[in-house]
Design goal:
Helices cover 49% and strands 0% of the residues. The protein is built from 11 helices and no strands. The longest helix has 17 residues.
């Protein structure tokens, strides 16, 4: 497949092939994926980093022949912190920022500074937008991050004792998530349960108070409202 890229200048075509190679290959043929980390266009660089992440995670025996995890993470983070491109590969329904978060999360286990990679993930979160493929993609990413980064707990962890990456993650989620994201489906994204499972505040006002943000006039001690209440009263 990589031979098809000889002379190819269209970055969307190049990126599509690179991601595909990452999904089916078990090594980096002749270092060609690594070569595209230095491409002049950001989309092939992102695709090469995405493919290399897949190899590093799915085939760890190839790690000695791959670029360092931090080098791959840097390229993913640079792409993720920027706005969505006008033209991009259709991989993951075109939601490349959510997929970037997923790739960076995989890289945390291989990086020398996993909390530094988490801080890069946090930079990507504000760039996640609705694509029409996955409803509320930011809420989906938030749930995945909570599951990967926190352990189930019956008590609320002391915020100041969390790692800098975890503190910043919760602060940004408190800014970006809406009250509806904590409501159960079909009214919201049902994030109340995963937050409380890990001992974290399960409403937006409570989460904002926990991380030190303004509660915007809402009482953080008020429990999650029952969305079915208006229907029960009729």
């Amino acid at each position: 497949m990589l031979a098809c890229l000889d002379g190819e200048r269209d970055p969307v075509c190049v990126a599509t092939v690179l991601v595909s190679v990452g999904l089916i290959a078990d090594h980096d043929p002749d270092g060609q994926l690594r070569h595209y980390l230095d491409d002049e266009h950001p989309l092939p660089r992102w695709a090469a980093a995405t493919a290399l992440t897949r190899l590093l995670v799915a085939h760890p025996a190839t790690a000695p022949g791959l670029p360092p995890a931090q080098r791959i993470a840097t390229e993913l983070a640079a792409f993720g912190a920027g706005p969505a491109l006008e033209t991009a590969t259709a991989h993951h329904g075109g939601d490349l920022h959510s997929y970037t978060v997923r790739s960076l999360l995989h890289l945390m286990g291989a990086a020398e500074d996993p909390d530094g990679v988490l801080l890069e993930i946090v930079r990507v979160l504000p760039r996640i937008e609705e694509t029409g493929v996955v409803p509320r993609p930011l809420a989906v990413s938030a749930g995945n991050l909570l599951e990967a980064l926190f352990d189930p707990a019956d008590t609320v962890p002391v915020f100041a004792e969390l790692s800098p990456g975890r503190r910043e993650l919760l602060r940004v989620l408190a800014e970006l998530l809406t009250a509806a994201d904590f409501q159960p489906v079909p009214f919201g994204s049902d994030l109340h349960e995963p937050f409380t499972q890990y001992g974290l505040p399960g409403t937006r006002p409570a989460l904002r108070a926990y991380v030190g943000l303004s509660t915007e006039g809402d009482d953080p001690s008020v429990p999650l409202p029952d969305p079915w209440a208006p229907l029960r009263n009729h």
